[in-house]
Structure formats: C-alpha cells, structure tokens
Amino acid sequence: MQINKFLRRAFLPVLLLAHPGWSAPAQAQSALLDDTVSFTGQVLFLETGVPGLVIGAVQGGQRVVFGFGETRRGNGETPDGDTQMRVGSITKVFTGAVLADMAAEGSIGLTDTLASHLPDIDVPRKGDRPIRLIDLATHTSGLPRELEREVDEDDPFSTITLDAYFAALSDDKQLFPAGTGGLYSNFGFDMLAAALGGAAGEPYPTLLQKRILDPLGLDSTGFAGMEGRRMMSGHGFDGEALPDVPSGPAMAGASGLYSTANDILTWLEWHLDEGDAWAETRLLDHAPYVNRDGLSPVFGFDESGEMDAMALGWIVMQPDGNRPLILQKAGGLQGMFLYHAFAPSGDIGVFVAVNQFDFAASALIAQFANDLITQLAAR
Questions:
Q1: Which residues lie closer than 8 Å to 54 by C-beta, 6 or more apart?
Q2: Is there a cis peptide before residue 297, judged by omega within 30 degrees of 0?
Q3: Rounded Cα gap, residues 41 and 54, in angstroms
C-alpha cells in the first residue's frame, strides 16, 4: 500500500537510530517514541475512517498514549488513556496468565485434565488423550469456536451460561482429538476459566482479581464498566453506536473484560519486565507450547499476523527479517476492535483500539502495530 511507503520514509530516522554502535540518549528515545506513535496514530485514524482510535506504546520505562476522533460518533469527546472500553478476546491472555501463575506456584498443572477440575461434568474425549488445560490455553482442545445457541437480539449474551456450556460438553462437542489440530475457541477459554475457578475453589473473576489485576495495579480493568468513567462506544458495520450489554460470568475467560489503554500498557510493561518474583509466571506464560507445523486443521489464528506457535493465549510470531519475535493478541466485541503485542527482545509493546466493526480496519491496526514494533525494537 502507498501508505506503508509513506510510513517507511517517515520512520527512516528510526532505522538510523537502530544502527549498531550508535546509542540515543534517554531524552531522544522518549521524543522518538512520542513522535513515531503519534504519527502512526494519525495515519491510522485517517486511513481507517473509524469514529475513534486510541494508540499507545511502552519502551524502556517510557509510555505514550494518543487519542483521535470521538468516543462515540458525534459526541465531540476524544478518547484518551483513561477511557474505558471492552477488550473482547484480549481477555484470553489474562486467563492464560492466571493459569501460568497457578502452575508456577504448583497449585495446578498445565497437563491437568479438564475433567479433573470439573468432576461433575461429562467432558468429551476423542482418541487416546483427554482434554488438558494446556490444550484449552493453546486452542488445541478440539472444542468448537462458539457455543451453539439461540441469540436474543436485545440481550445477545444472555444465552451464554455455564449450564449451557456444560450441557454442550456432555453432548460430545469435541470436533477432533485434543492436541491434533488448532481451532480458535471461545468455548475452550471459558471452560479454562471454569476449571481454574474449580481448582481454586472460588469464582474465576475473584481469582483473576487476586492473582493478576490487584498485584499489577490494574484498577481500571474488570468485568463491568466503571460508574462515572468515560466509555468508548463500539459501532456496528452500519456505523451506528451499539449499546454496552453486560456479557455475564460465563464469558469471563474468553471475552468479558473491560480495560483502558493505560492499564493495557501497564500490563504490557509487566510482560516486558525481567528478573522479579514473577519471572517463572512469565516464562510459563510466554513459552511456545504448540508449533503450527504438525497441526491439522489450523483455523482462526491469522487475522492479525500468521501464527507460528501458541503460548498461553498469546499468538507467537517468530522473527521474520527485521521483525523480532512478537507475542500478540487481538480482540473484538460490541463494535470494538483491539490489538496489543510486544517484542520481549525489543523491549517494546504496542496497543491500538478502534470503535467500529470494520475487518479492513482491524487488519490494518495489527499491521501498523507490528510494523511499529519492528521499527522501534531495540537491537
């Protein structure tokens, strides 16, 4: 695209700063991050034509956030780092982090079976191997993408309940033997959250709050919009604003979270950190457990960059040319499309959100974010 050629010219100074043997002072690095992220956000906003866009990045202890457009079409309010929004499937990597943290302390095993933590539920089993927690966290369980259900247009999430999930499990909904294929599954991650809650003996939202949200200081992240907080309204394909419909506890593992750009950047900073008490949790969270090679089928992973391997909810993209190894996850719900990614070796993380369902825009924000990481990654 012509726009990418324009960006490459704009990022030429970044390439010069990355030249071996030249080290930019901290002030220059901060100004560089500010300038390149702001410019990328402006171009993305104009290119996508969405009502509003938020973009942010963290690197080397620095962070920047920029908002463009409106939180809701026509309201005149520009989004910022504290604007709350639904993050959809970005929820899954928080669930993966809970699994990693419990495994790091030894209270649960990655290879524990789903049935062992849901003992009263009939869990399907095709072939010789049962569904394990690691299968759920890497989308290799064989469970379908979604729960088959009737949808109430006025309350679209009302029929997604744990009872409905458990009934579907008992009806043998496994599509292929665990570990043999990869199929992106909201069903699987909601069952993972249920299993984690079962293992801990407490509701999964409480478990997430205690293990991840509170320790990391993610005060604006949770399973409900916060009273008095400005909300970024999603818009449908027709451009009309969509209502903020609560998703319910059954969706806590796959897609139920709300957050802000500032909280997501704090979350990315935690993933980029090294050497503290969380080191083992991050190691377990980021490890590539399942390589694409050898899986059949492989479906539902590549909208934001081709999946080479799966970590715990994170899609792993191996280095390619100048691009470093990237762990990424996208999300979309109720008219929001979001993407966040980080490069551990490059000490950089990026978050982008737009508030209209537009598949071309969702692909574009991921492409721009990955290009930005490639340009700014420490070398």
A1: 65, 66, 67, 68, 79, 80, 81, 83, 85, 232, 261, 351, 352, 353
A2: yes
A3: 7
Tokens (6 digits) for 373: 């990481």
Q: Can you name the residues that pair with 327 across neighbouring β-strands?
A: 316, 342
197 in Cβ contact with 95 (< 8 Å) = no
Q: How confident is the model at residue 294 (pLDDT cuts 50, 70, 90)?
A: confident
Q: What is the pLDDT of residue 24?
A: 32
Distance (Å) of CA 313 to CA 70, 77, 227 = 31, 33, 30
Instruction: Please give the structure tokens belonging to residue 301.
Output: 């992973």
Pick the CATH number of 2-376 from 3.30.310.50, 3.75.10.10, 3.40.710.10, 3.40.50.720: 3.40.710.10
Report the amino acid identity of residue 345. Answer: S
CA-CA distance, 367 to 216, in Å (whole number)? Answer: 28
Euclidean distance between the first and final Cα of the chain, in Å?
27
Six-digit token string for 57: 């990045």
Q: What is the DSSP string of 134-161?
A: HHHHTT-S---SS-----BTTBTTTT--
Distance of CA 57 to the CA centre of its chain: 15
Q: Which two tokens stand for residue 246?
A: 């609560």
Residue 126 phi, psi dihedral angles, 5° rounding:
-100, 135
pLDDT of 16: 28
User: What confidence score (pLDDT) does residue 165 get?
Assistant: 94
Torsions phi, psi for 316 (to 5 deg): -100, 125
Closest to 160 in 3D by CA, of 173, 147, 171, 172: 147
Rounded CA-CA distance 144/176 in Å is 9
pTM, entire model: 0.91
Residue 227 — very low, low, confident or very high, per pLDDT cuts 50/70/90?
A: low
Nearest CA to 48 out of 260, 362, 371, 340 is that of 362
- Which residue would you say has higher pLDDT here, 118 or 1? 118
Which sequence spans correspond to the domains of the chain? 2-376
Share of the chain above pLDDT 70, in %: 91
- Residue 345 near residue 271 (C-beta atoms within 8 A): no
> What would the two tokens of residue 274 be?
């090294």
pLDDT of residue 4: 43
